[in-house]
Fold each of these.
Amino acid sequence: MSYVDGFIVPVPHDSKEQYRAMAQKMAGKLQDLGATQVLEGWGDDLSRGKVTDFYMAVKAEDGENVVFSYIVWPDKQTRDKGWEKLMADPEMQPGQDMPFDGKRMFWGGFQPIVEERATADA
């Protein structure tokens, strides 16, 4: 069964394109390391809650949106080896020009308990 990494990150609206370009570059590297799917979703239909919501979870500030991301790996072993190599890549080290506040980002690894995929009709 697959293994999934999930991320939630606040991104300023005016940094959307810079974030997209960074995410596109990272997606290619992740796929080179074995990821089977990478998705970065720009918040489009996010409700404001009274107790919690995506904005509150990342302490989004005025002018920021929320990005929801996930990476699908064939298994946890591939994921662990992939992240180890990615974290050692000098090109992937955090820099001053990050298009988001990494202190308010959160992430984790997940073992699927349901995994269904649609198949194309023949």
Note: Residues 3-94+103-110 form a domain with the Alpha-Beta Plaits fold (CATH 3.30.70.100).
Amino acid sequence: MSHRRPVQIGFGFRNSSLASAVRQLALPLTLLLAFGCPSGSLAGGVLVRDLVMVAGARDNQLVGYGLVVGLAGDGDKDPIYTKQTVANILQRYGISVPSTALSSKNVGVVLVTADIPAFAKPGARLDVQVSSMGDAQSLQGGVLLQTPLMGADNRAYAVAQGPLSVGGFSAGQSGGGGATVTKNHPTVGTIIGGAIVEREIPASIVRDNTIELLLREPSFTSAARLAEAVNQVFTNAAQAVDSTSIRVRMPEGMERFPVDFIARLESVEVTPDTAARIIINERTGTIVATSAIRISRCAVSQGNLVITIASSLDVSQPSPFSQTGSTVVTPRTDTKVTENKASLVALPELPTIEKIASALNALGVTPRDMMAIFQAMKQAGALQAELIIR
């Protein structure tokens, strides 16, 4: 009589070390299933980290007053404050010189600005912007002397120093005819990694086991969707407070690991709300519209008015062998007005940005004309979008 071994569904391991390894992998897998997998949320959405910032993890602005040397004659033109600054620096090194006896043509006073991020530790490097405060012609080739960077509380949090990188130049001030050539802004420079953090700014991101997320683009709809997406991963953890704030309570077992929890929270996907908005920049002729805009039924007629003004110079001379009169130059101006005919075109309801663009392009209007049409549509109540003119 034969005995059959029962069939066991699962995985059997004869090697005890391999079985131990599987048990070690089972614990993280259990925690992952317990807290949820962020990638299993809304597909095709935007990551939370691209929409929000964590309250408390904010940048701070720093500013300092300093001196740039080595400007090869392009520095300040002997203002009192520049001379006094040079005298104060010399005094620091034990050299007493009256400020009136100094020349500042090779130096320039500057303001140094920088942004220090949250949790920046002493020894970290910051990029700084250096801007001329006096009447220096250029900061090219200059070196910034050691400059403390102060916060809003008037305490020094970083120290800046180093050679400037100026993305421009100015030349020809003393050339023949007084001609000059200037590119970009030679009075503004940058020092990459030019500041060293000396003091950390305290920051707190967890309060009562709660983390607050702040939307960069306030929207009640986006706040509600974000809270819903987070609750699909961490059950009943998020609550939308207003159009900007979403409070998220940390689950049990994650209180001691706020960084890991925030990293998982930032990986949640959400579909944000896109407001119907048209941005018009009349200076550059740029139009940017979101896909949510729509236009109600309306009629549009756009006519082009072209005014041409041509100026020319004529010469008036007296008759031959005339004893009186002189040759004079007389200006002449010709003005011509051309108005193109335009018909009234009825536009149906246009629910998408693609149809709106096609309809307006079919009218043969230019971007400038399109700006006037959008403004007229908004006044008529046919444009269902926010119109922002820069």
Note: The CA atoms of residues 291 and 353 lie 5 Å apart.
Amino acid sequence: MREKVEKALESIRLALQADGGDIQLVSIEDDIVKVRLTGACCGCPMSQMTLSMGVEKAIKSAVPEVKKVIAI
């Protein structure tokens, strides 16, 4: 599962980096993916939308068994 999640993150990483941000996979526990937004994404007022509409959508599309994606 970790490899699939990493691959999904790679698919959106360039878009995040284009805006000065990035994302790191922290852990996967009980089908919940924990990520850390870094760079310009950290503290950005749009980061919650990016997380739910971009990151979570990409991960759930690639790995349907994932229940939730949260930022820590």
Note: The radius of gyration is 11 Å.
